[in-house]
């Protein structure tokens, strides 16, 4: 573990000028390292806003369509996932974009800020690269300073790009600038939060986890506050405890208030100052929170390749279960407001949900498909972690014991397959419970459970196909995202885009049926299951024959 | 008795790079065999073929009498392996990993495991991500040494260990040998292998260039001597086995073949030696001296 050996002589570290020596060079170096990541984040967030704007344009054809949206977004559930709904009583497109979708972009900007700071500070220290840098003529605070300048630059750029995007669509320039600035402010605030959390733990994942938890808390606080505000009773002041809330309280295109951003800016500066202060109190490479010891012995059940695979996937499964349960409850509780709102929603949207007679079943079937795709993401990530086991050299000592490659691979895939089934069960239960409470119809729980579980074989096929790609050519694994991408397009945009049937049926998710809107196709379920097993067999045959990747 | 390891004319290529080129290696059962070679010579590739992790392109490989590719699982019950670069799961403790490996191999001896943890001074309650390189190495070593197996395959097992732990390691290898186990010990440090190995094979660019007992390889161990004497050292020049004698102002340097070291030291005594430094040759020097062709340029810089 790194120690204090690279610390600069005490006398040299005292003046501020010395402590930030080398900041400029480091900043240029970071920009060089982030030559893909920097434009990906900044342009990506601007593109996301453009996408929301374009999508809204296609859905909303008339003022009546806009009113239909208000009914949904003005409800408490809409406020939770949108915002306080400033000016929604006299809705315009730009007010809806800023008030409903601005939240997603602000959360994205917050993620950008915190991940950028963790990447260039704690992650560098953990990898040992920062030690090399600090051994050169570089001040103690140069790394943090350069990182914060980088994060601030990204935040400003995102703000300008989004302001430009909105202004170019003909929306009010002043409001567009304010909207852009409020998004950038969220990025800045969470860069400040991360400047604190990176001082606390030795591990980059823990640092981004803590900052991410702060982001989640900020989301929930303003969600509760906004719900209260929309209902006209309750603790609406909660929104003012959240950096995202400050960004939303600017009310672009309505009140056009700039002053809440002063709070954001002050918060970012204060958090950054705390970060500097904490960094002075710790050794290089160390955290302020010491790591906890674990068990010196393995539990009795940790005695088979399957048990090991379960142990390695366990943390991720717990995280996914919690996230899907919460998301399920939230989306389920949307059900009644949505039904009320969709009664006079735009036609295309209604068509997507299966037409006006089947709105409830359509919405619930749609949720099941969505969760199927999300759990598909879990399956692909699980295979990626298997690949990392091999690439990082952790599979080698396991395979040097009495464990065959077939059993090793089967253990991991079996855990992921059971995990996928479990996650669909949890998601179905969450949405079912949420919908049952929202509509007062307990029977929905059973229907949703069935609708979700029915998608399991499709997820299994994604899982085993990913495994086969990994077995044949580990580097090509990202190709499998195409399957999920197509599943998303086929599931969501088929009615709008006029995709031919044959092309639709290439997606494994298009065969089972979106229960309860459609019946479950039992033949498709069996065929997909058998096919998954066959594809997995092929993966085993391939991995038995090839050389194992080594680190050396 | 059948040899524990019997490799004949083994070839292995990675793309256009030829890693092993007609490698022959025999390790007798119950011996400690030093597998010596510079980095990148093919030591790890050989061991990974013995483990059935890589497939041989050509040649014959027998491990404990079986084919390591086809019978990997059965063979792995009878051997333990320590990689040169140990990677652990970040959120499993060292103790969990040791227990897991022992169980996956089929047998575990908790008493011996605890004793080894103590001897190697390892805290088994720390998480994998908090261990230094040396401590990760200890985890793999304890897992291997605690298991009751016939063969130990050790790939540069002490790369991250300090001298104290190196001594513990040597003790453990001697115990393993006394228990009748076979050990294949790969290393790029001659001195380490010298103290442990009954037999040594030197690999270079995928081929075994020298194999035999330490005495057989005596001619390879030419020692560098650096001495300050009161009297002129010219008489050393006539001594057989002395090479490259240089002297200025009573400071003399020369190299001497291993089996003539005693005579040379005796002669130095007669010359009223005041100071004496004796250095064993490095592997690089050896290879340079005996097989130096491509190595000359790289090696010359290191020796100078």
TrEMBL record, chain A:
Keyword Lipid metabolism: no
Residues in coiled coil: none
Ranges that cross the membrane: 38-56, 101-121, 142-164, 176-198, 210-230, 258-278, 317-334, 363-386, 407-437, 449-472, 479-500, 520-543
Domain of life where this protein originates: Bacteria
Keywords: Membrane, Transmembrane, Transmembrane helix
Protein name from the UniProt record: Exporter of polyketide antibiotics
Species annotation: Micromonospora qiuiae
Lineage: Bacteria, Bacillati, Actinomycetota, Actinomycetes, Micromonosporales
UniProtKB/TrEMBL annotation, chain B:
UniProt GO molecular function: ATP binding
Keywords: Antibiotic resistance, ATP-binding, Nucleotide-binding, Transport
Superkingdom as given in the UniProt entry: Bacteria
Chief localisation class: membrane
Topological type in the membrane: Peripheral membrane protein
Family as reported in the entry's similarity comment: Belongs to the ABC transporter superfamily.
Protein name (Swiss-Prot/TrEMBL): Tetronasin ABC transporter ATP-binding protein
Species assigned in the record: Micromonospora qiuiae
């Amino acid at each position: 573990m790194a120690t204090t050996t690279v610390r600069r002589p005490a006398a040299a570290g005292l003046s501020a000028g010395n402590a930030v020596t080398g900041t400029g060079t480091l900043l240029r170096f970071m920009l060089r390292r982030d030559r893909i990541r920097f434009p990906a984040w900044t342009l990506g967030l601007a593109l996301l806003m453009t996408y929301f704007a374009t999508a809204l344009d296609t859905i909303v054809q008339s003022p009546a369509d806009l009113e239909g949206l208000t009914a949904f977004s003005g409800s408490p559930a809409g406020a939770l996932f949108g915002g306080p709904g400033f000016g929604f009583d006299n809705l315009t497109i730009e007010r809806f974009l800023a008030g409903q979708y601005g939240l997603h972009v602000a959360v994205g900007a917050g993620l950008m800020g915190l991940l950028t700071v963790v990447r260039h500070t704690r992650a560098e220290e953990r990898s040992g690269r920062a030690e090399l840098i600090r051994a050169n003529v570089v001040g103690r605070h140069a790394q943090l300073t350069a990182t914060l300048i980088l994060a601030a630059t990204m935040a400003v750029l995102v703000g300008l790009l989004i302001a430009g995007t909105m202004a170019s669509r003909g929306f009010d320039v002043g409001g567009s600038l304010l909207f852009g600035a409020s998004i950038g402010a969220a990025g800045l605030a969470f860069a400040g939060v991360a400047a604190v959390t990176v001082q606390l733990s030795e591990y980059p994942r823990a640092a981004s986890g803590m900052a991410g938890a702060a982001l989640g808390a900020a989301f929930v606080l303003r969600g509760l506050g906004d719900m209260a505000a929309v209902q006209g009773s309750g603790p609406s002041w909660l929104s003012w405890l959240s950096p995202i809330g400050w960004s939303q309280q600017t009310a672009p295109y309505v009140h056009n208030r700039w002053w809440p951003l002063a709070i954001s800016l002050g918060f970012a500066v204060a958090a950054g100052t705390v970060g500097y202060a904490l960094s002075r109190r710790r050794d290089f490479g160390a955290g302020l929170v010491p790591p906890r010891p674990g068990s010196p012995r393995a539990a009795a059940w940790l005695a088979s390749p399957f048990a090991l695979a379960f142990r390695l996937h366990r943390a991720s499964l717990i995280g996914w279960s919690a996230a899907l349960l919460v998301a399920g409850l939230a989306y389920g509780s949307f059900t009644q407001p949505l039904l009320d709102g969709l009664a006079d929603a735009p036609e295309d949207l209604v068509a997507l949900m299966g037409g006006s007679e089947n709105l409830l079943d359509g919405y619930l079937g749609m949720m099941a498909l969505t969760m199927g795709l999300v759990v598909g993401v879990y399956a692909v990530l699980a295979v990626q972690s298997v690949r990392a086991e091999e690439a990082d050299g952790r599979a080698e000592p396991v395979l040097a014991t009495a464990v065959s490659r077939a059993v090793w691979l089967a253990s991991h895939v079996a855990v992921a397959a059971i995990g996928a089934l479990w996650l669909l069960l949890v998601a179905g239960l969450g949405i079912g419970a949420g919908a049952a409470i929202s509509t007062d119809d307990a029977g929905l729980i059973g229907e949703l459970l069935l609708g979700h579980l029915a998608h399991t074989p499709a997820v299994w096929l994604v899982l085993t196909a990913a495994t086969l790609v990994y077995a044949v050519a580990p580097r090509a694994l990202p190709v499998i995202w195409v399957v999920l991408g197509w599943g998303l397009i086929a599931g969501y945009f088929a009615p709008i885009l006029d995709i031919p049937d044959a092309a639709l049926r290439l997606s494994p998710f298009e065969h089972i049926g979106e229960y309860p809107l459609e019946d479950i196709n039992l033949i498709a379920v069996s065929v997909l299951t058998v096919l998954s097993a066959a594809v997995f067999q092929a993966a085993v045959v391939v991995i038995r024959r090839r050389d194992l990747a080594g680190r050396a | 008795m059948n040899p524990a390891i019997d490799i004949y004319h083994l070839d292995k290529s990675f793309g256009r790079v030829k890693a092993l080129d007609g490698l022959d290696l025999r390790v007798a059962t119950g011996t400690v065999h030093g597998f010596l070679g510079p980095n990148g010579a093919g030591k790890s590739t050989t061991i990974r073929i013995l483990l059935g992790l890589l497939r041989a392109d050509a040649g014959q490989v027998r491990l404990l009498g079986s084919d390591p590719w086809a019978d990997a699982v059965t063979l792995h019950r009878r051997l333990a392996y320590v990689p040169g670069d140990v990677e652990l799961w970040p959120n499993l403790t060292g103790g969990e990993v040791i227990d897991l490996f022992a169980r996956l191999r089929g047998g575990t001896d908790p008493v011996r495991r605890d004793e080894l943890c103590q001897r190697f001074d390892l805290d088994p309650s720390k998480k994998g991500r908090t261990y230094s390189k040396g401590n990760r190495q200890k985890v793999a070593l304890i897992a291997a040494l605690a298991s009751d197996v016939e063969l130990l395959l050790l790939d540069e097992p002490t790369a991250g260990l300090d001298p104290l732990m190196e001594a513990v390691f040597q003790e453990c290898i001697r115990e393993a040998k006394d228990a009748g186990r076979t050990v294949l010990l790969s290393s790029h440090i001659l001195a380490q292998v010298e103290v442990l190995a009954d037999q040594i094979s030197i690999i270079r660019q995928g081929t075994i260039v020298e194999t035999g007992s330490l005495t057989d390889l005596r001619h390879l161990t030419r020692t560098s001597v650096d001495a300050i004497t009161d009297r002129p050292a010219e008489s050393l020049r006539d001594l057989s086995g002395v090479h490259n004698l240089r002297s200025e102002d009573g400071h003399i340097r020369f190299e001497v073949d291993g089996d003539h070291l005693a005579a040379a030291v005796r002669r130095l005594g007669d010359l009223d030696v005041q100071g004496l430094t004796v250095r064993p040759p490095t592997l690089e020097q050896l290879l340079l001296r005996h097989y130096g062709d491509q190595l000359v340029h790289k090696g010359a810089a290191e020796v100078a």
